[in-house]
């Protein structure tokens, strides 16, 4: 338990106090000198509170404030156990002390005995890191950024992406003298499906003659539906180098993208203001390094993922999930596998055998392997299996290591894997059978981190 003093130094005839830890019941405050005070003996946690001064609800604007789902504003306080701990009382006790200061000892909340309060405190620590650091702190001092001219033919653009090992690249508009969009592996998937859906055999002229910018316009018409006009008006999602990490991460998560361009505002219109691409792995790596400098943060990172509300899990594990755990078989048509990826808006899917054991992972970015020697001009997606597609991937890049963990792995171990470039998700497997128990994605991890 931790002693915490709350004060209202801004005048008034009468003052009361209420908070989330009192069940929002009013508690009297004592007048000490020129300010009203009350002291509570609290379990560690993050709490909200307000003052009732002369019949009017007030907040201390000099302290942190939050707004709830109903629009009500309250002060917020973090109570941690870095202070001397007082043994909890079994009931509420009120005594007078310090010329009228009231000490109220709250009964320990059940959450203080499990991960509920730990999670709240941990997220508060993460929030402080994200809010007090900018994306500029994460961007490498020197790095190479590949940028494509939007006027390039689609075929040439994807050949460059394949040769350079890129799954996404910013598009430069020479007329506007700035980056105006992103070309991704998903675009390549949609191009192939559009052409093969219409003419069944791939038309070389579609890729030879159409520029990337023309494809982007065609995609809006073909896939945009009734809201095409609204989509066309959406500007490029980007961030400034001075934006805090929380805003940058939310921009990536809410817009369901893998990265976002970082611009440096400048009054000089000449030159390209693009500094780099912000990605969740870079931010996760930064958070991990900062948390490990804090005893409380490092301690929480040692929790096993099986005990945490994070990820998508198989029903066999008994853990609840908001989403269905999707897997695919080697014999599944590639087109059906791509359907799952696009419909679920995920970047990869585990490939399992008949017993549910992990064999490999197929990712949207693997479609770029079809760019070698123009393989995509000689196949039909409905006739190619996932197994065949993976073999093509092996021929281009060789066999690869699947990023996996155990249900007993620590949160830190998972975050360290997710902070590696190119890793979007970690598959949870049983150690002997390699049965797929669940998946923890970058999005899952960040959604948990920021609450």
TrEMBL record:
* Cited SUPFAM superfamilies: CBS-domain pair, E set domains
Keyword entries, A-Z: CBS domain, Repeat
Segments forming domain CBS: 141-202, 321-377
Alphabetized PROSITE patterns for the sequence: CBS
* InterPro entries, per the entry: AMPK1_CBM (IPR032640), AMPK_gamma/SDS23_families (IPR050511), CBS_dom (IPR000644), CBS_dom_sf (IPR046342), Ig-like_fold (IPR013783), Ig_E-set (IPR014756)
**SMART domains linked:** CBS
> May I have one GO cellular component term?
chloroplast
Quote the PANTHER family the UniProt record gives: AMP-ACTIVATED PROTEIN KINASE, GAMMA REGULATORY SUBUNIT, SUCROSE NONFERMENTING 4-LIKE PROTEIN ISOFORM X1
Q: What is this protein called?
A: CBS domain-containing protein
